[in-house]
Write a structure and sequence with these properties.
This is Ergothioneine biosynthesis protein EgtB. Residues 178-330, 337-413 form the Sulfatase-modifying factor enzyme-like domain. Residues 15-144 form the DinB-like domain. Pathway: Amino-acid biosynthesis; ergothioneine biosynthesis. The chain folds into 2 domains: 3-155, Four Helix Bundle (Hemerythrin (Met), subunit A) (Up-down Bundle); 179-414, paralog of FGE (formylglycine-generating enzyme). 32% of the residues lie in helices and 12% in strands. The protein has helices at 3-24, 43-62, 73-76, 101-120, 126-155, 222-230, 242-248, 288-297, 305-315; strands at 179-182, 185-189, 206-210, 213-216, 259-262, 265-270, 273-276, 344-350, 376-379, 396-398, 407-408, 412-414. The protein has a 4-stranded mixed β-sheet. Helix 1 packs parallel to helix 5 (126-155). 36% of the residues are buried.
Amino acid sequence: MNIDHRRGITDLYASTRNLSLNICAKISNEDHIVQSMPDVSPPKWHLAHTTWFFETFVLKNFLTDFKPFHEQFEYIFNSYYETVGDFHPRAHRGDLSRPALDEVREYRSHVDQQIHGLFDSGQDDENFLKLIEIGIHHEKQHQELLFMDIKHNLFKNPLYPAYHQHAPHTSPETKPYQWLPIAAGIYEIGASADGSFCYDNEGKRHRVFIEPMEIANRLVTNGEYLNFIEAGGYVRPELWLSEAWNSFKDQPESSPLYWVRQDDKWYEFTLHGLQPLDLNAPVSHVSYYEADAYARWANVRLPTEQEWEVAAQLYDHRDRIFDIDHLYPSAQSDDSFDIMGQLWQWTASAYSPYPGFKAEAGALGEYNGKFMCNQYVLRGGSIASPPNHIRSTYRNFFPSHSQWMFSGIRLAREV
C-alpha cells in the first residue's frame, strides 16, 4: 500500500466524518428526529447509518476481537442491504426516538476510534483501503442527503425556519442562451481505469455515437419557468407524459416544490428561509416530469446522459466552490459553461447498465445495480454536493416524480 495514498485516505476519512457533524451542528436536537415524508430520513438516522456502514463492512471484517457497539443497530441502521439482513422500514425511521442523539454521537466516536486504530496499526490490506474509500464517498452522498432532508423537514414547518440565517441573495441578470455545438461522431464516456475513485455504475468506459446537436450553456431560470407557469404549462395535457398527467388528477401540481405564493407574490423556501423568488437564479427542485414538460413547451428537449458527458468533456473548465453557509444556486455571471456544481440536471436517459457493467461482489453489489429500474439519470452535482465528490462520469438517479433533491433543467436541441 502506498504510504502517501494511505495517509491521504486517513485524512479524508477524518475530514469527511467531521463535515457530517458540522452540517448537523446548525440544527436543533429536535430537528434530528423529524421525517417529513417517506423519502426523507431523520438527520440522526443519517449520522448513525453512515457509521453503521464502517462498522459493518470494515470493523466486522478487520477487527479480530470485533464486538458491535449495540446488537440491534445492525437492524435499525441498515438501509437496504438484503444480504446483510433485515432492516427497519424506511418510511418509519422517524419513529426511532431511541437511541438518543447523544448515543448516536457516542456510536460515531466509538467506530471512529476503532477505524483510526486500524490505520495506526499499519493495516495494509488493499481491500481495507478500498472499503474505507467507498465508505467515505458513501458518507459524502449522505451529506448531500442531509441538506435535502433538513430542507424538506424545515419546509414542512409553517414557521419556515432557516437552516442558516443570511441576507437575501440576488443573482446577476440572466444572459441569453448560448447554444454550444457537439459535432456528430464517436466519443468515449464512462470512468477510466486510472485508479481514481468511481462507483461501479460509472463503468466500463465505452464508445457512443452522438448525432449533431447543441446544448445550452446555462440552466433554465426561475423567471423562465415562471413564464411556463403563466402560459398555462401545468394545465396543458399535451406537454406532459401520461403518468405525470394522471397523477395531477389526485394531487394537482402548479409550481416547483419549494415555491410559495403569498399575497400574489412568489417566494421560494431555501436553506436560508423563505426568500422572494430570484427570477435570475436557476429553477430548482423540479421533477423529471416538470423538466420534460418545460423542454417540450420550449420546443427543445433534455440532453441524453451521453450528450451531457461529452459536453462536459468538451466545454467544462470551471472551478467549483462548496460553502456550507452559502448554499444558493446562482445565475452564471460570465460566458463560461456552468455544467457542474450548480444543480443536478435531469437527462432523457433511463438509468441502465453500461456495456460490460458488473456489480461488486457481495453486499456492496447492492449499492447501485439493483436500482436500475424506473429511474432517470441526473448529472452534474449541486451546490450541496460535498467537496471532491463531483466528476463528469458521476451517474445520479431518481424516480421521475422526485423533487426534493437539488435538481434543475438544462436544455438541448437538434442542429
